[in-house]
Here is the input.
Amino acid sequence: MNAETAREKFVDWLARRMTLAGRGDCDDVLKVEPSGKYWLGRLQSAEAVAESDWGDRGERLEPCAFGIKVKPRGAGPWRFRVVTSFRVWLWDKSAKMWKKTGPVRVGFAIEVPARIGMHRYGEEEIASALASVTGRDGLAARIDVEADTGQSGDHELSVSLVNCSPKEHPDFKDTRLYQCELRVEGLDTLPFMLEALEDSFRYDRCIEAYGINCGVRTESGAIVTEDAVTVDRHRPRYWNVDDPMPTMRFLDLAADPIGPAEALLSALRSWGGANWAADVLEHRADAERWSTEMQQQATRAAEEFERECERLAKGIELLKSDEALFRAFTGMNRAMSFSARGKYDSWRPFQLGFLLANLSSVVDKEHEPDVVDVVWFATGGGKTETYLGLLVTAALYDRMTGKVSGITAWSRFPLRMLSLQQTQRFADAIASAEMVRREMGLAGDGFSLGFFVGQGATPNRILENPKPGEPDPDDDQMPRRYQVLEYCPFCHERSITMDFDRRSWRLEHRCGNTDCVANGDALPVYVVDEEIYRFLPTVVVGTLDKAASISLQASMRGMVGAPLGMCSKEGHGYTYAPRSSRPSGCLVPGCRGTRQALPMEEDKYGPSFRLQDELHLLRDSLGAVDSHYEALYDALQDELCGRKPKVLASSATLTGYEKQVDVLYRRAARVFPVPPPRVGGGFWTADSESLMRRFVAIAPRGVTIEYTIDRLLTELQIAVRDLALDPVSTCADIGIDPQFSAELLSLYGTNVVYGNTLRDLEAVMRSMETQVLVPGAINTASLTGKTDFSEVREILERLQSPEDSFEERLHIVSASSMMSHGVDVDRLNVMVMLGIPLSAAEFIQATARVGRRFPGLVFVVHKIGRERDAGVFRSFRQFVEQGDRFVEPIPVTRRSRRVLDRTVAGLELARLLVIHEGSSGTALTTLRTFKDYVSSGKFDVDVELDALVEALGLQSELDEPLRKDLRVWFDELRHNILVPPNDARFPSDLSPSGPPMLSLRDVEKQVPVIGTRV
Here is the structure.
């Protein structure tokens, strides 16, 4: 037996153990009431359900019936066999103990007449069997079969076991039935078609049967109820053709990328001929009875596939014809070899394919920016590394073609807190690229990384005389509070020290390893906003929210174009608009240097790329606000540099992506890779036999979801503690070699509890102390938006490098959506999900945090009283297997008048700071200087109105209400300039709609701010 088999057996054992614990299969006696202990497999009395206070939800919260809904073949009558079994718990008054009976098992043939209505069977047979097992009369159950006609016009049968026992009975303290099961045998059926999904030539919408208050499975020709619905997802394999895979090793591609690239394209085209050719699609259309619309979908998809092949071919031709691009691409592969440090040594086919398909965007600054390229690939497949490969290629190409300084790419994440693991990956790639730059002898600034998230995680600025709570340069403990790297990106040793250098006024990460190539110098990582403006790192990675800062901070000019100069003082970097405290525009406090000329042409400073991670999260008000700021950034860069950046994005869904891209960026959209003609069977990826993730859906019966979570966590922790205390016996029970016990304990000893709300998670954590009772202490932690930045770093460190002793490790981690993006810890392989998230996209992203490298286990505990959770439970298998199709179209619009009212002040103030102040040669921060500037004729309100109308693309008839609102706003601005409000002191005070937004999430009424006054 190998380790992979042992892991899969352990996951199977753990999942089965939880189900048995929920049903009570392993218990024969109890000291507590069974109704308070078991959350699966039980049926309440019909009388009790009818009299409950839960109303219509009662039949879901604690049902009195469960069963199977099928579509019988033929018109009837229908004949089949029903087999049911269950148990009863009896109270032994003398022993003061509950005792479970043996199984009550009844089977009989049924004939259902071909007419609509309810038919009842087996009440006498079941009552007799109950009396025989319990030794007394009083309990009753029956089989109900309801015949009906579905929406399709076909007959439907609902076969249910009903507990028709009385609510109370003198001989039975509990009239519920436990460990219930129902089987339907010998019935020929037709499949249902999943109504929630549209027709698609790629997917099978057939469902053999539906469960009624349960799940169902097929077993030896029978349809059987199941209490916990289990769905397996298999790990993808990345080469799905018979041809030998060409080498994709970094070092091989660093020597010769052309041969492997051509072999990859040849295999892709050969596969396409066998799967996308017109005759192949026609054959499938006939065999699978495609509708006309499905045939049209397939034809369009085949055309998209051909264009994908053409893009790869163009990338290969560019490598052959552009020497600088060839050198940049081979240098990037050497850099990725350094960055991987043996963890992996090659690209996956889809990664190399993406790189080849997008090489045009590195060299073509005229046409490529008009298209947004969206990468759509399974979470954990390597999207981040793929992006980084393209960015490193672009950075090297920039250095070879005259861009010796400035930002190549700005990567933005839509979360409030950026994952430190994502930052480390970026740092590793940039440091490796810097090693290659030096090796190649390329002139210009060294490659560097900017961590651009701002106050709360890292400082906006560091002042000479800080106020209380602000970072103090004289505080020796201050620097380490802002450490964002886990280890040195050059040598990969955990040797990071933090320091503040007053001479260069920098908060520095340093490597303490004397053998490191960093040689004791500050690492090329900037974590203070003003340092990012001063040094313009090659790649900036940060949160989307920071985009709003451009209306508050003149130095954000460096994010869209050229700064105003360089400081004459060594190590001070770029300068921007002057202020009273910094007359030369240098951001170093007290600097008395002078402004010097820039080191390269101004039009080269604009970033080549903007990256948007998790595009699907830019929705509703956040998406609407962002669409205005995206337009602003495009317009500013176009005005300063004569070009827009290329936009790259990743998304968890393709549902409505073209419309979303059009709204956000006013660009066409293109996806890579084109989804395959059959789900799970593409060229770039296909399902393997290895288990990736097992989902277990649970609908608790008669107990609260909080109780179910407590019991699951208890049983999970008892299971791993059994493994820790007695590995030999436990491994024998599982059927694996004890040699794997230590690894299994590490991989499955930490449980993640994922919740939709902080209130849910806080309730779970409170109950840890009193409800989750296991041998030894339980160590817990939280990863939510309320978790302090330094604590997040410490938790991730403990998860990645656990303590030697199991007793000292983290056992339970509660997590919110903060964790669902970019937290990649191989040891997290068990998740308990508290209710279905509000969106299918979040479900996909959150559950992908476990099972990234080893088989994972996800218990999805449904809030079954909610309609949405109940609906998902009903078709849980399809929800998991076709999850992307359940992702709702992204609701987003740029035509929101309310949003424009919130953004217009920021849009215009950004133009004032970036365009006007940059060209005026003086500060425009006071009302007096601004009015003088207006009087000089350099600021025309009508010109500004036209600039924003053009930037926002408000050209159609549908945009007239927004154009009208802008005209009114600028008319009021004109009036306020001529007759300022009495309390106006700064240009921002002239805004008719109030101050600019502090954050893109800030769409509510705000308090006044003075962001443009410094």
Remarks:
- The first strand starts at residue 29 and ends at 30.
- Residues 562 and 860 are 51 Å apart (CA to CA).
- The mean pLDDT is 91.
- The first helix runs from residue 3 to 23.
